[in-house]
Design brief:
- The chain is an all-alpha fold.
- It contains ten helices and two strands.
- The protein has a two-stranded antiparallel ribbon with strand order 1-2.
- It is globular, with a radius of gyration of 17 Å.
Amino acid sequence: MTFDPYVLLPLAAVLAATGGIAGILAGLLGVGGGIIVVPVLFTMLGLVDVDNSVRMHVAVGTSLASIVITSIISARSHHRRGAVDIALLKSWGLWICVGSIAGTAIAGFVSGPALSAVFAVVAVTVALYMTFTAPDFRLRDRLPTGVAGASAGTTIGGLSAMMGIGGGTLCVPFFNAFGFPVHRAVGTAAAIGLIIALPAAIGFVITGWSLDSLPAGSIGHVNLLGLILIAPFTSMTAPIGVKIAHLLSPRALKLSFAVFLFITAGRMFYSLV
């Protein structure tokens, strides 16, 4: 299919603005920007009559491709501030990657509304957790190891790949519940975003490779127009988000995270109705 030229310019402007906002959020919250990119892309693709059977898949795949770039820049900025836990990346990285691959494979076989439902349910669950748990809430004082740690990493990677997010949406509250300082959780989550997004983006290209209902300029489920417009702006604004993150209190950071999750979850629930 092709885009109507009368909607191409405003679509491009909205995607560019989305990229700028997503970049700030990537640095601020360690979320890779996908929590904003996915619902906005989903809405914009609907306005240009992209088939509903592939609309959510394209939004997720394009978001993941942009997160590859955003996560690198955001993680480097956090690392310079000493907020990335390298030991945790080494111990959890393999399992998060395994989960990402598995989640991508599952996403290739489920419907678009099913992916929207996954996004909405997980987002609102995390938002409720972040809003109503006390600042000093802890399940334990250290992260799980062994089989429990591997299972947690695989689950986070799988759900994040299906949602088109960089991992921060799940990593930040999970790490914080196990005694991880919130700023360090955000910084480490930014690096985890790359581990999730790279294999997942490749997977979404493969699963959508032979489909005829994709929008113009797509390689599999990754739309190049969206990627070209979003990625440069996320790259430019991610360091701004990092600076803001280190100026906010942990409580303010958690509440900011929750507000954005409620907004995006509400949009997805609305699309299902």
